[in-house]
Structure formats: C-alpha cells, structure tokens
Fold this protein.
Amino acid sequence: MTTLARAEQNLILRCSDPLNAETPPDKLIASFLTPQADFYIRSHGPTPELADDHPVTLDGFIDHPRSYTVAELQAAFQSRTVVATMQCAGNRRAHLQGVGKTSGDPWDVGAIGNAEWTGVALRDVLAAAGIQDGALYVGTIGADDVDVDGETAPFGASIPIAKALEPDVLIAWAMNGKPLAPEHGAPLRLVVPGYAGVRSAKWLTRIEVRDCPSDAPIQAKDYKLFPSSVTKDEADWDQGLTIEEMPLNASICSPVDGAHVDAGACGIAGYAVAFGRAVSRVDVSVNGGTDWEQAELTVNPDAPWSWTQWRVTAGLSPGLHVLVVRAVDGAGQMQPERPEAIWNFAGYLSTAWHRITVTAR
C-alpha cells in the first residue's frame, strides 16, 4: 500500500501533494499513545524514500565531524525512549479561518499526536563530537525539497543549543517501538519535545552546529508569528517571532462538531497540552461559556512531555448546544477566549477556547 493510500485509509486528507493529513478526532482519544498509522502527517515536499543505512552527517562548530547510520548510532550510544506529544504549529488553523483568510492547510484538531520515540540523545552525540566555543544553535537539513514562496531548497530548521542539549531531544529511529514509516521520517528524524513539529526535522541528512539560526527558507521566512495588523506582503521576517515552544491549548474530540446526540447524560472528551507546565484544570461548558464544569483529567506523571486527556459527563436538554472547552496551566494561565484576538495571516498557534455545536434529541 502506498503512503497516500495509507493516509486516505486512516486519516483525514488535507493535501495530497505535499502529503498532509490529520488524525480523526475519535482516534485522538482512543488511547494515550497514537498508533503510527493514525499519527498526523505533515510534509513540506515529496516524501523521500531513503535506505535504512542512509547516513547523517554531523559537522559545524565541533571538533570531530563524522557521519552516522542508524546502526552506528545504536552501537555508539545508549538508546533512550521519550514519550512526547508532537503538534503542528498550524493545528486548529481552521478555527482562525473563521475570522479571516489565512495561508496553509485548514487543520482542525488533529494535527497532533502522542507517541513513544526511541533513539539517542542529541546531546550525547554532540558531546562525543566536541562542541566548540561559539556554538549557539543546532541546525538540521532533511532530504525533502521545500518550496517557500517560489524559493526551493532542502528542508532546514534549527533550535537553540540550550534546547539541543536537553536529554529528551532525540535523534530517533522508532515510534511506539517500531521503525519509523517513510512518512514519519525514516530512517532518522529529530524529536524536540515541547517545540512545534517543524523543529523535529524528518529524513535527516545533516546536523550542523552553528553560530546563528538556520538560513534555510522555511526557518527564515516561515513559521513566524506576526500581529493581526501585519499582512504577509508587509511582513519583515527578521521581526517575526520564531515559533518554538508550543502554548497552552485544548480541544473537544467527542462529540464532533455538528453531531446529533441523545438528550440526557452526554460524554464529552478531548485533549489538552501545556508544554513546560502541567495542565492543572480543564473546564467544559454546554451553554456557550455561561456555566462551567470541571473535567476529569488523565495524567501520566512519567510522561511530562505528553498531552493530558480529559473527560466529563454533562446533561444536555433537547435542542442546540454550544460546547466549549478551556484549559488552565500550572501558572494559572488560561487560553484566550476568542479567535479574533489571536488571528494572524499564517494561521499559527490557534489556541482560543474550542467551540462546537451539537443537537440533542
């Protein structure tokens, strides 16, 4: 079965070329770990087909440049497994498109997933290479070619050296105990917990220790946040906020928007994320935000980079209901109420209270 056929069978297709598909809402809450076949696919170009022994070059501000295959990484370093949620910076973009037109695919709530990633710590590989003075960033290059506003170049991204040296940042070869599928970056990808998925480069060909951020188009002229007053044509890319850490967010996954449900007790469920802090509370309203009930949270204390799943049972009288969810993190911060307050031309970081309508009969 082709990659596209698998995506069409298991996911909601948003674009076939490049392949972008999101997880159906019911599959997001079916289990704590998202199966690889059900995990959202975010591609910026055609999916490369790389051999299992495809090497990754390590160079830049290091003493000992070299290259590694999966087998060589496994032989030279201790394997490490990290459970972490990965999320596209454009997740829930469709909810901003209700305010005004944005660029990018109309992701609903499914450009997100939670998986067990296995590989080696990037910091172990960098330490063995000998990091030199002046190293401020770690850049990655993938085997996929990306078109950014007519400029085609290999995928390139970077993260600050301080993040790269965290023990849970991985050069990964497995997902949920199985080798990465081609659409998820085989044979090697970066996994950067807590950061936007674009920083977790797939199909790695090169890791470069740098004194400045990557100058690849997708780093320099994309995945940056601007105020609502700025249009794409007016954007000064040097002034945009580079999207790295992902903010507090929550979504309703069941029931789905527009559903017809039985009147009476109704189970409502979804996910919440708060990278860097715990999700301390999830509130759910069945009358548009006038009254709130606190949801029950499912938290795995051994997986601090993972999402929190939540559930509440609420009584619905016959008729139309607006269901709303909002999350609160460990610092008492709450999501913004309205999407109008955070609209931006690229449709990034859509974190307003999630609203859906259902009809009880």
Notes: Residues 249-360 form a domain with the Immunoglobulin-like fold (CATH 2.60.40.650). The CA atoms of residues 121 and 170 lie 5 Å apart.
